[in-house]
C-alpha cells in the first residue's frame, strides 16, 4: 500500500537520535503527538496515540492518553464486546509513558506541532480540564472514539477544522484491511475476527475516517499545511519535525493482512482426505474415525463462530459484528452437522436426516458464493468462503455417496 510505503520512508528518514526536545518551565507550551507502535499483546495490536505537553507552568512534562481502562474488572471482555466499555483520559508524567514503552519494547515516535502563538497553551488547558475525574470518561468505539480519533479531534479543533477539511480523499484500504494487518501476528485471532466482522468494515474510508488507527494519524498529520491562527495568514506545515524517541523490538504492523490461499489449500486437502477415507469406512473402521476426526474440529469452530457472531449482533451495540455473509457457511444450524460426523466416526451410513442436513448446509454455502456478484453482497469474505466450502462439500459428498453407492 502506498501509504504504508510513505510511512516507512518517513520512519527511515527520521533522525537516528532523538531530538524533538520538550520546552522548559516558563517557555511557550510545546505540543508533540506521540505514536507508539504495536506491541506483543493483542490489546495493543493497533498501536497508540497520545499528546505530550511541555513548558508553560508545567514543572514536569505531561502525556495525555485516552487509552486508560480498568483491566481488573470482572466483566472486562463482555463489557468490551457489548460496545459499552468505558475508557478515560489519563494524565501522566512523561516518565510513566517512557517506562511503559521500554517495558513493552515498542518503538516511540514524536511529532512536534508548529502551532500559532497561544495555541499550545489553549490545548494544555483543554487537556487538563478534560482529564479531571468528572470529565475524563468516554464510551470507547474502535472506529469513532478511541485514542487516535481523540487526538485527531483535539488537533483539528486547535487549527480551526483545517485538518478535517484536508483529509477528504478516499483511501485505497478499508477497516478490514487495517485490522487484518494489525492482527497478523496472531493468526488465530485474525481469522476469527475476519469471520465475525461484517461489511461495515469494507466500506470506503476518507483519510479522516482512516485516522482511527495511530499509524494513519501520524501519516496524515505529516502532510497537513494550514493557515488558521497565523497573523500573516501564510500556510505552515503542521508537523515541524518527526523523531524516533525509541527504536524498540516491536515496530509497525506488516504491510498486508495474512493471505488466505494457504488456508484454502489446507481446507481443500482436508476435505479431500476426509472424503477419500470416508468412502472406505465400511471396510475399514479406522478410516471412518480419521475421516470424522478431520472434519470434527473445523466444523465445531465454524458452528461456534457463526453462533457467536449472531449472539453478539443481537446483544451488542458494537458496530461491525453482523449481519454477516459468513452466516451462509456458519450459523447455529451448523451444529447439526455433528450428527453426520458422528456417523462417520462410527463407520455407519449418514442416514436420511443427516443427508438432508449435509445437503442443505452445503447448498446454503454455495448460495452465499453465487450471490457475491450482486451489489448488496459487498462483504469481503471470499477468503472465508474458500476455507469453509470444501469442508461442507466434503460432508455433502459423503452423504451423496451413502445414498447412491455402498458404504
Essential attributes:
407 residues, disordered N terminus, alpha+beta, 9 strands, two-stranded antiparallel ribbon, 12% strand, seven-stranded antiparallel beta sheet, 15 helices
Question: What would your notes on this structure say?
Answer:
The protein is an alpha+beta fold and 407 residues long. It has two domains: 2-246, no CATH class; 261-404, no CATH class. Helices cover 46% and strands 12% of the residues. It has a seven-stranded antiparallel sheet. A two-stranded antiparallel ribbon has the order 7-8. A hairpin with a 7-residue loop joins strand 2 and strand 3 (62-68). Helix 14 (352-370) packs antiparallel against helix 15 (382-404). The radius of gyration is 26 Å and the shape is elongated.
Stretches with pLDDT under 50, minimum 5 residues? 1-17
Spell out the helices and strands N to C: HEEEHEHEHEHHHHHHEEEHHHHH
Q: Distance between the terminal alpha carbons, to the nearest Å?
A: 52 Å
Question: For the report, how would you describe the main beta sheet?
Answer: 7 strands, antiparallel
Q: How many domains is the backbone divided into?
A: 2
Widest sheet, order of strands: 6-4-3-2-1-5-9
How does the helix and strand content classify structurally? Answer: alpha+beta
* Strand percent estimate: 5-15%
Structure summary, number of beta strands: 9
Instruction: Determine the fraction of residues in helical runs and give it as a percent range.
Output: 40-55%
* Overall mean confidence score, pLDDT: 91
The outline comes out as elongated
Instruction: Quickly count the helices.
Output: 15
Radius of gyration: 26 Å
Amino acid at each position: 500500500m502506498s501509504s504504508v510505503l510513505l510511512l516507512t520512508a518517513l520512519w527511515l528518514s527520521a533522525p537516528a537520535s532523538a531530538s524533538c526536545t520538550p520546552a522548559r518551565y516558563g517557555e511557550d507550551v510545546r505540543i508533540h503527538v506521540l505514536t507508539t507502535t504495536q506491541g506483543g499483546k493483542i490489546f495493543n495490536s493497533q498501536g497508540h496515540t497520545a499528546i505530550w505537553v511541555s513548558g508553560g507552568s508545567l514543572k514536569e512534562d505531561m502525556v495525555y492518553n485516552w487509552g486508560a481502562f480498568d483491566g481488573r474488572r470482572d466483566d472486562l471482555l463482555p463489557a468490551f464486546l457489548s460496545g459499552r466499555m468505558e475508557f478515560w483520559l489519563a494524565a501522566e508524567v512523561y516518565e510513566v509513558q517512557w517506562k511503559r514503552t521500554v517495558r513493552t519494547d515498542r518503538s516511540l515516535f514524536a511529532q512536534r506541532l508548529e502551532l500559532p502563538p497561544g495555541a499550545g497553551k489553549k490545548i494544555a488547558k483543554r487537556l487538563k480540564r478534560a482529564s479531571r475525574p468528572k470529565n475524563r470518561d468516554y464510551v470507547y468505539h474502535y472506529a469513532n472514539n478511541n485514542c487516535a480519533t481523540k487526538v485527531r479531534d483535539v488537533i483539528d479543533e486547535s487549527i480551526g477544522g483545517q485538518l478535517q477539511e484536508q483529509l477528504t480523499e478516499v483511501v485505497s484500504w478499508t477497516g478490514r484491511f487495517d485490522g487484518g494487518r494489525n492482527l497478523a501476528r496472531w493468526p488465530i485471532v485474525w481469522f476469527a475476527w475476519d469471520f465475525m466482522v461484517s461489511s461495515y468494515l469494507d466500506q470506503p474510508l476518507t483519510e479522516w475516517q482512516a485516522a482511527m488507527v495511530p499509524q494513519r494519524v501520524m501519516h496524515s498529520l505529516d502532510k497537513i499545511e494550514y493557515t488558521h491562527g497565523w497573523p500573516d495568514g501564510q500556510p505552515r506545515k503542521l508537523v515541524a519535525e518527526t523523531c524516533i524517541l525509541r527504536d524498540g523490538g516491536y515496530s509497525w504492523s506488516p504491510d498486508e493482512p495474512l493471505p488466505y490461499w494457504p488456508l484454502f489449500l489446507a481446507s481443500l486437502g482436508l476435505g479431500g482426505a476426509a472424503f477419500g477415507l470416508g468412502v472406505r469406512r465400511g471396510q475399514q473402521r479406522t478410516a471412518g474415525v480419521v475421516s470424522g476426526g478431520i472434519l470434527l474440529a473445523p466444523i465445531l469452530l465454524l458452528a461456534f463462530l457463526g453462533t457467536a457472531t449472531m449472539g453478539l449482533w443481537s446483544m451488542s451495540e458494537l458496530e461491525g459484528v453482523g449481519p454477516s455473509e459468513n452466516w451462509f457457511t456458519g450459523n447455529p444450524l451448523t451444529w447439526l452437522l455433528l450428527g453426520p460426523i458422528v456417523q462417520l466416526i462410527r463407520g455407519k451410513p449418514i442416514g436420511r436426516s443427516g443427508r438432508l442436513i449435509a445437503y442443505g448446509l452445503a447448498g446454503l454455502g454455495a448460495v452465499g458464493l453465487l450471490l457475491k456478484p450482486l451489489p448488496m453482497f459487498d462483504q469481503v469474505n471470499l477468503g472465508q468462503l474458500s476455507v469453509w466450502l470444501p469442508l461442507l462439500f466434503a460432508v455433502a459428498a459423503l452423504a451423496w455417496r451413502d445414498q447412491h453407492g455402498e458404504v
